[in-house]
Amino acid sequence: MPKRAAKPKLGRLEKLDPTDYWQTQADFQQWLTEAETLDLLGEAAGLSIAHPENDPLPELGYALLTEADTGALVLVAAHRSGAELSDLGQLLAWAAAENAATVLWVAPDFSAPAALTFDWLNQSSEVMFLGLTVELWRIGKTAMAANFIPTCGAVDDSEVDPEAENVEDDSPSEPEPEPLTPLQQQNLEFWSGLCDRMDRQGSLVKPGSPTPEATMGFAIARAGFRLNTILDRDHGSLYTELLLSGIDAQPHFHLLAEEREAIANEMGLPLIWDGTGDQACMVACTLAEVNLDDRDRWPDYQAWFCDCLERFYEAFFDRIKHLDANGYQPLPKRAAMTDTLVLPARPRG
Predict the structure, then answer these.
(1) CA–CA separation, 66 vs 48, rounded Å?
(2) Count of CA atoms in the C-beta half-sphere (13 A) of 144
(3) pLDDT band at 140 (very low <50, low <70, confident <90, very high)
(4) How far is Cα 66 from Cα 314, in angstroms, rounded to an integer?
(5) I need a surface site. Which of 160, 192, 299, 343 has the fewest CB within 10 A?
(6) How far apart are CA 216 and CA 210, in angstroms?
(7) Which residues are within 8 A (CB) of 82 and not within 5 positions of it... i.e. 6 or more apart?
(8) What pairing do the DSSP bridges indicate for beta strands 272-274 and 225-232?
(9) Which domains does the chain carry?
(10) pTM higher than 0.70, yes or no?
């Protein structure tokens, strides 16, 4: 009987707050103009957006791109927090200055007045206005995924049944979230204490919302980089790590590794450098002999996390900002077997 193919392992899906992941407006804007993001954005908007030859300047507040099929100008602007009506003035000024044919406005959410005005602009103008909500998800402990949802403006509602709008919605309401397990509750309480401590200390690292998971993430410098704090109960350890993800993870990792001695001296911590993953590399430090069931030790563990996060942030923030994956020159691959010297076998006996 043939062996069944192994099913892929399913990961836990967790929705993240975009403002926790993108630390600044410039980070969010820069991420929007990366090739993979533009492909995803184009699919959601129904456009084929050409990749820019040169990276747009995120400090402009917008990126001016072109539609691949027509060459028409596409203005893409990001708003890291919720989009409000008061933000539309600047957006329209940019669109007018560039004579854009399409305006894509991306934000975690849109206020009702902003969405209504965007609808009106699209209906009463030759310019296409489309507002897209961005969602950010984490799959398991490391993999990240983003999703764009057309929300206002040129939203395609042609498939909506007009009669359906008058039908009472009898669909079941969204189920109540399952109660936390004792372990998840312990994680939530531990991370809440860590966030409170960071707030009191005025940490350089901005804490997000505490999580019931064993890993809590923090934004640093730009997309594709993440600081994580990890509770490893299986090995009685704590980890603070810098996680590098995406197609440039390997080049970025090796560029940072060229300065590993200087970084170690600055941080004053023993570091683990792991570049074995294709699209996920990490630099970490660890604290062993940890007992998370002893709550009296929690302040010590939280203080260790605070100290490590600060050191990682200070050592890596500027370096990450100035990384350019194109500057990485990988070592030549080993010579093929045909170029190697093969010695004859020794005769038996």
Answers:
(1) 9
(2) 22
(3) low
(4) 38
(5) 343
(6) 7
(7) 107, 108, 109, 110, 111
(8) unpaired
(9) 13-156 (3.40.1350), 182-324 (3.30.1460)
(10) no
